[in-house]
């Protein structure tokens, strides 16, 4: 597959690998041991250009597109998936919502520092009543009070919420108006009172880059930090989630490759009955099944990214890619663990905890069932998966140069 990619993408892959091998891989266990968020490393990743591929240079991006973004996510996750946990908040969901729905002033103020890794992002949509039905589950409200909104309610699984400087949070401004009653806000929890983020203990996931429960008690958001019109928030966020799905699929692919590479190495090293276990045909069968699934996932992930780069309909292919890559990650993690025998359960070997990330990618950014619903309803003719293509009327970071083309419009 690599041989089919343009040479410059191979060079970017090398850059990511060098960055991870030099800066991240040697120190990530220390961050995990102390439970410290690697803020300086995120900044270095930003300075290396790892977060800006789908944004124009005018906002600090590298304007290289979704295929590059996918390769970066894949390679980062292959090296150390724990460090890749914040990539969507820095490079996709959070800045993309701001870019998609914000004024020029909001975009220029908040997007460049996120892409540079100077501020830490967050995208908080999910609520305790159910992530697969974010609209129906949303109980959090935002009420206008003069120059500010006061937000009350709670969020769940808000990744990096305990570290975030700038996030996007969804709340209902009109609880009776369905999707048109949801507004999106740029939130700055360190600046304003009422935001309490508590990391959740997650089995096998990073202790340094955490996902959190968030409690909002009259949390203050300046009215000028609303994204778009009141009630436009749901559309804005749905627009930003699709690219996130492709990069999550790429991360799942990275995890599958990590499992495969570890399994191959171990199968060659571990000797039983006087020969490497890789010589046993049942081990070979596992290795072969992993290799096939990985190549198939890769083809789907790259195709989804290439469709997005070509501005072709991509919702259906993104669902196929996310579903297949997360299945592949789960399967590869399971097989790698078996190949490692008892050592596959020892925390010292990463195959013991890569499985948790495979499970996360199976669930996060749209569960496997949700992807299957999109794929099947499209196939059955109930709902065309790509029906929204070109209809959102929202800004597209690939086509717009916000600094050049837009004049500022204040929210109020
Ligand atoms: C580590 C981690 C990090 C996360 N980070 C973020 C974040 O930063 N921001 C954020 O907003 N969210 C985040 N999430 C939330 C994630 O997107 C949700 O967990 C996901 O959307 C599923 O929601 P849920 O957990 O409430 O499961 P539910 O929605 O309750 O689903 C439970 C089960 O029911 C199935 N199901 C749901 N609907 C149907 C249906 N119609 N037909 C058949 N089966 C169905 C699901 O597939 C699932 O198997 C994160 C989650 C995790 C675990």
Write the layout of secondary structure elements.
Elements: H1 7-24, H2 28-34, H3 39-47, H4 66-80, H5 87-91, H6 93-101, H7 104-115, E1 121-124, H8 134-137, E2 141-145, E3 148-159, E4 166-172, E5 182-187, E6 195-199, E7 211-222, E8 226-227, H9 233-269, E9 271-272, E10 275-276, H10 281-309, H11 315-339, H12 351-363, H13 368-379, H14 402-405
Parallel strand pairs: 1-4
Antiparallel strand pairs: 2-3, 3-7, 4-5, 5-8, 6-7, 9-10
**Major sheet attributes:** 4 strands, mixed
Total number of helical segments?
14
Rg computed from alpha carbons, rounded to a whole number of angstroms:
21 Å
- Termini, distance in Å? 50 Å
What is the number of beta strands? Answer: 10
Structural class comes to: alpha+beta
What count of domains describes the coordinates? 3
In the sheet with the most strands, the strands line up as 1-4-5-8
CATH fold title of the largest domain: Butyryl-CoA Dehydrogenase, subunit A, domain 3
- Uncertain segments are 405-412
